[in-house]
Amino acid sequence: MKILVCEDDTMTLKALEHRLKKEGYTVITAADGKKAAEILSTDTDIDLLLTDLHMPMLGGLELISLVRSNFKSNLPIIMLTRVGLEETVLHAFELGADDYITKPFNPDELALRIKRLLIKNKV
Amino acid sequence: MNIRWYDLAYLDEISGGDKDFILDMIQTFVSNAPDELNDLKNIAKNSEWSRLGESAHKFAPGLQFLGLTSLRPVINQLEEFAFEQKKLELIPDLIAKLESQCLQVIDELKKDFNI
Amino acid sequence: MNRCIIQGRFIFLITIIFFLQHYSSIVFAQPEKSLSEKSESSEKRYERAILWGERFYQLHLNTLALKQFDKAHKIKPGAYFPTYRSNQLKIKLHQPKNTNLGFMVFDFNKPGILISALILVILFSFTSMVTALTIVLVNRNHMILAEKRKQHLREEYQTMLVNFLFAKDINEELIQKIRRIASTNINRRILIDQMIDLSITLTGLEKERLKELYLALKLDQDSNKKALAKKWHIKAKGFRELAFMNIHSANSEIINCLSSKNDVLRMEAQFAMVRLNPDNSFGFLDFLQKRFTLWEQLNVYETITFHHLELPNFEKWLQSDNDSVVMFSLRMISVFKQISAYNSMLSLLEHTNPEIRNQTIQVFGNLKIIESLPHLKRIYKNETYSNCMTIVSAMGKMPDNSMLSFLKLVLDKEDDVQLQIEAAKAINKMGEEGSVALTKLLNSDYKNYQIIIKHVLDKRIS
Fold this sequence. Notes:
The complex is a heterotrimer. By secondary structure, chain A is α/β, with parallel strands linked by helices. Chain A has helices spanning 10-22, 33-42, 60-70, 86-95, 107-122; strands spanning 2-6, 26-30, 48-52, 77-82, 99-103. Chain A is built from 5 helices and 5 strands. Chain A has a 5-stranded parallel sheet, with helices on both faces. By secondary structure, chain B is mostly helical. Chain B is elongated. Chain C is an all-alpha fold. Chain C is 70% helix and 1% strand. Classes of the chains: A alpha/beta, B mainly alpha, C mainly alpha. The A-B interface holds A 8-12, 14-15, 18-19, 22, 54, 103-104, 107 and B 10-11, 13-16, 18, 21, 24-25, 28-29, 32, 57-58, 61-62, 64-65.
């Protein structure tokens, strides 16, 4: 299973990559939404998108909207957000996100949510 | 007993005990943090408040990974004052506090991990 | 001139905005490329183009952003992101949501044609308002000056005319001056007005001289022209001028207007007929179809009294089919005491219109025609309440003992207090016999007359 992780903070990106690789996923990273869009335009095997909401060059919300309209409309999307941004989270859900997780993330919780979404999507 | 500002419990949890990963993360912090702190100071000097808020927001995750919970309120205040452009006279002090603690942590990390 | 200043300022404002727009483009423009930059790797140029494009995109400088993304696309044709942004920007730039005035672009998120139309409406409204205000102010000043000038001329002409009319010898110089005045339209109008005003107060030789002057200056042609005009207010003025100057040239037109639907025109025609036909001043009453209003009646009455016109025998209109003419005639008979119309008036006591009967009864009372008393008594029981009141009141004006028993009957039989009071008043005016009768009634136990009779006898109440 291939997961695209889109996060502008280096340490968070490394942490996510490490954890997800440990769970057995193939991880592709992107430091901003633009790069994520580039990857999605060429690689059609991505099974899940894990994206931060606040990024330069194509923010998380725009990326979600782009994925739903231009790429895979049923690609599972999990948002990474911090506490206190409930409105943005709701907006992301309106645009088509499937789930969200707050930072600092609980690695077990993250793994569980990803697994659940992937199974649901497969079905 | 040495008292340390940093706490690697969270990194340990994420990495699942992977020491190489933890070291990599520490090295990332040690190499990036000084530049990010200088950026903060320069942006504050130029009074670019919304950029300052964004930079402070970017700086926060690194502190979380190293368990620097005491600096969490400092970063929060910095973000709040910068975005809302209020109590701007307190910002230099906040940045100074942040810098002094981070430099102390970097020193500790360098000593402890021979970086 | 004001319009020119406003337009000039508008053009200046637009020029300033244009230069500001151009200046802001320079500020945000990319710095000039040096030789070293040209040799940068394509990756860095691509990243730079993406960076600037995104900056412009965030600032809604869509045209500049599109240029940068197109540049990035040329450097890396396969890259998705610049193509994505370019498509977004092309849609934005081609959608009619912006209002592009050539040098300015506004984004109101509404159809461009609507925004342009609104801007045009606003500009048009503002310009119209300023123009209208200017015109109003200029006109107002003009009118004030014109009125001042007219007033000055009026005084000057009046003095001139009085000097002419009351001069012992013929003053050729003055005559020539008046002729010169009469040669211009505006001055002619003021001169005519002054001559008409004078004619109201003049009599005898001076009036004749005024008329001669009027005709010599051919001012009667002006009045005739007005009398034949289509507009009623000009026509009315013409009638008035001809009437005052006793000029008969437009009599047929005046007769035509005697039954005009326009109240003012009809009234002026009537007035003119009264003045211009001294032998048959009120001939118009013969064929007046429309209602002869109270205002018209007053106007004619005023003409008669003010100008001492010869009075006709109003009796001949008592049989008119027009009730308002009958009413007028009755009033005139009463005012001018034409008692000779008594027999004709008697027949009016049987008229179908109760108002006419009422007026007839009043005239009998006013003229104190005692011969009418038995007839009034006869018609009493079939009359309306108002007419009964008038009958009793008329009896009071011409007290006669023969009516004492009738009035006592009224006092006794009528339930209406007002009628009883009127009857008691009429009895009271009958001299000693009346007083005795009232005193008896006062002491009577039969009916409670005390209040009514005390009220009538109270000297404080006139």
